[in-house]
Amino acid sequence: MKTEQSPYLDLRQIPLNALVAFEAAGRHCHMRKAAQEMFVSHSALSRHIKQLESRLNTQLFERKSNKLQLTAPGMRLLASVQAAFGELNNGLHMLNPTQVEGEVVIGTTGTIMLNWLLPVLADVQKQYPEIYFKLRTLDPQQKALPSELDIALCLGCPDEPDKEVKKLYDEYYVPVCNPALLKGQTLQTVDSLLAYPLLHDGLGQWLPWFQHHQLDGRKSPHHTYFDYAYQAIEAARVGMGLALADIVEVAEDIRQGKLMQAIDSAHTEGESVYLVTHPTALMNYRTQLVLQSVINNLRERGARLCV
Predict the structure, then answer these.
(1) What is the per-residue pLDDT across 163-175, written as a single tens digit (0 to 9) for each?
(2) pLDDT tens digits, 17-47
(3) Whole-prediction pTM value?
(4) Strand bridging mode 268-277 / 151-155
(5) For 111-170, what is each residue's pLDDT tens digit?
(6) Ramachandran bin of 145, using left for φ above 0, alpha for ψ from -120 to 50, beta for the remaining angles
(7) DSSP category for residue 238
(8) Which residues contact 297 (CB under 8 A, 6 or more apart)?
(9) 98: which residues sit within 8 A by CB, 6+ positions away?
(10) Tens of pLDDT, residues 194-206
(11) Is 167 helix (H, G, I), strand (E, B) or coil?
């Protein structure tokens, strides 16, 4: 026996005009303003709303103290309709190449660029070949940024009063190395790290990290120094020693087995990464697409996002 389908689940039986009218009326909670927005008469808008309520067998609006208000079912439906219209609007934008085509200028540190950003941008270009990139390398703690940047991912807070500057996430440092260095076995104590060569970058995080664990990092038998974190991470990949790296920057290497976390210790908070953009109202659509891809990837990598 065929089960009768609920009318709530069959969008084909609900007129689109009624949903459009409901969204406008629900957003304004004012019939006259909604009718003016849609360029229809007050009575025509009311008919659409009554038609939708009749089809759903549910009251969507009520009047309290002569003011129009959404009922509880009306509020739930409005949230769903607005989300659906938003997705439809995004899809229509993507059909128009003029909304997407063009350049996005991105600035970030060499470490962020090489260790996780480039694969994200490669994925963006596969989905949106109309977008092309110009990449600028920034120094850690750089205060003044090039004016051409659409997106900047800065290690340390820059001085950019004319742009939106938000903390994006805090770095959390973990010791990593080539699995062969430790024969694939995680170390059991922090002090056992001191038996292996340490790979330092320009931020010099090893000594404070050991101090956090009440140890003297200078007792390691061998130290190698690099200007940038991506160089120390690459040295760890080829087996030169232990690097101290942000978990976001090495998450993919650990997943692929190129690196391993040397010890299962608590992550120690390090520097903060800041996001710099134009105000949202001035941000073009392609930049918004790229930015959303970046944030989604960070979330997948386990970054503790602040936005």
Answers:
(1) 999 999 998 899 9
(2) 999 999 999 999 999 999 988 889 999 999 9
(3) 0.65
(4) antiparallel
(5) 999 999 999 999 999 988 989 999 999 999 999 999 999 999 999 999 999 999 999 999
(6) beta
(7) T
(8) 116, 120
(9) none
(10) 999 999 999 899 9
(11) strand
Domains of the chain, earliest start first: 7-95 (1.10.10.10), 99-170+273-300 (3.40.190.10), 171-270 (3.40.190.10)
Q: Are the C-beta atoms of residues 205 and 241 closer than 8 Å to each other?
A: no
237: its two tokens: 């990949």
Contacts of 66 (CB under 8 A, 6+ apart): none
Residue 242 has pLDDT above 60, yes or no: yes
Residue 247 near residue 267 (C-beta atoms within 8 A): yes
d(CA 210, CA 268): 10
CA distance 103 to 114: 20
Give Dmax over CA atoms of the chain in angstroms.
Answer: 85
Token representation of residue 158: 């820059």
Taking the CA atoms of residue 136, residue 241, residue 268 and residue 293 in that order, the dihedral angle to the nearest 10 degrees is 40
